[in-house]
Write a structure and sequence with these properties.
337 residues; alpha+beta
């Protein structure tokens, strides 16, 4: 910007220097008669004046543009103070209104059956009440989990996924696709570094970075992580229930259940990481064994094995569980699940 102005400011002098050079050439040319030379000098002078005037006009225009830009940087335009206060006050009133609406919803849900909560969310979506729908999306899952209706919870989660997906603009959709691709690449790198580590029998950097999970390995969760990692078992030939995740591997899990399940029972379940960053993971598994937990009366432990091939979302769940478990221990436990 300033370099261009400096160049334009030097233009009149450069034009005049060129005129002087032409003047000297004409006066030294002995083949040009005096009358012709005078006419040529008049033409050169007129041309020089026009050029200098044009350069000055461009310079003034550019100066005005640059000055406006620089003054805008020094004194950016802003609304009057009253308008700023008004905007902030209106925003605060809007947020207070949303907070009141949230409290009203939470109180009404306490007396409503789970199906009514889901229908309220469906109605907010159909009326395009975005903020009300977002209140449902922020609070209703916790309420439905407490009410213990697996079918209503599953319906709500399906509706929420569709609603959140519909709000994505093209840039966000591309970002979501790119994040999924990154997860796939991270998984590939994890597998390749584990192969390198096992092949070269190295320890330290490569092994620590890529071999957090070993073939047949199982991550055993700390007790507080178990209570915060809920597994929602959807009803089928057995009642629906909420279980706790005791440990997990690439091919199965060990669950703590409120009631016994027979070996061979097929479970459709939803599991989420403790911090909820990766959404729910839906899988299907078969109960391989189930027995009473001798350390907790009324609780049962069951080993389940996945019935379909793990996907990227499942591996993402395993990575998130490993990340949030700072002191977790990976042990080899081939006999379970």
């Amino acid at each position: 910007m300033m370099d261009e102005l400096r160049e334009m400011a030097r233009a009149p002098v450069a034009i005049f220097d060129r005129f002087l050079g032409e003047l000297q050439r004409v006066t030294r040319d002995k083949t040009i008669s005096a009358p012709v030379g005078i006419e040529r000098l008049k033409d050169l002078q007129a041309s020089m004046v026009r050029e200098i005037e044009e350069s000055l006009q461009k310079f003034r225009s550019k100066v005005g543009e640059v000055e406006r830009r620089l003054h805008g940087i020094l004194r950016p335009a802003r609304p009057p103070l009253y308008e700023e206060i008004k905007q902030v006050t209106q925003r605060l009133q809007h947020l207070l209104g949303l907070a009141i609406q949230r409290e009203q919803l939470l109180r009404s849900w306490e007396d409503q059956p789970p199906e009514a909560v889901v229908e309220g969310y469906r109605a907010a979506l159909s009326r395009h009440e975005v903020e009300r729908a977002e209140l449902y999306e922020a609070e209703a899952e916790r309420v439905l989990l407490r009410k213990g209706n697996a079918a209503a919870l599953q319906t709500f989660l399906s509706l929420r996924i569709q609603a959140e997906e519909s709000r994505l603009d093209p840039v966000q959709k591309q970002a979501k696709a790119d994040l999924k691709e990154i997860e796939r690449l991270k998984h590939e790198v994890t597998l390749s570094t584990r192969v390198v580590a096992s092949t070269l029998k190295v320890s330290g950097g490569i092994a620590a970075a890529g071999a957090g999970w070993r073939s047949g390995g199982r991550l055993r969760l700390e007790p507080q992580r178990q209570s915060r990692t809920a597994v929602l078992i959807l009803p089928d030939a057995h009642p629906g229930m909420t279980a706790q995740l005791v440990d997990v591997s690439r091919t199965g899990m060990r669950l703590a259940l409120p009631q016994e399940l027979p070996p061979g029972a097929v479970l459709n379940f939803i599991v989420r990481t403790p911090d909820g960053r990766d959404g729910e993971v839906r899988m299907q598994a078969e109960v391989r064994w189930c027995r009473a937990d001798g350390r907790a009366p009324g609780r049962f432990l069951a080993g389940v094995r996945l019935l379909r091939r793990p996907d990227d979302q499942w591996f993402s769940l395993l990575r998130r569980l490993a990340e949030v478990q700072r002191d977790g221990v990976v042990v080899l436990d081939a006999n379970e699940a």
